[in-house]
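Worked Example 4.2. Consider the chain below.
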Amino acid sequence: MDSNRKDQVVFNQPRVFAERHDAASILLDRLKYRMPVAIDAMDNRADQAFAAWPERIYILGPGGRVLYKGGMGPFGFHPEEAGRRLSEVLGSIPARAGG
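Applying the procedure from the previous section yields the following structure tokens:
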């Protein structure tokens, strides 16, 4: 995409984990992404386990338990449904003191 080229977020396919880590660092550092980010191992075990291609939303709870598994995109991709479930999940978590 032209916008990706303009923003310099075009990468070659990573060959080693350090290259994946460097790409994720750009998301965190330059683009100021503020949610936890996981980086898949080079054998793509998370990709295979979650079948996230082409796009899918998951909400994971403590210990990695799947609390929400959205449908596969583009037709099963419903961010508003995931948002409702996330609100339910967050509403069931007791507020922490001071934060």
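Residues 18 and 60 are 25 Å apart (CA to CA). The first strand starts at residue 58 and ends at 60. Compare this with Example 4.1 before moving on.
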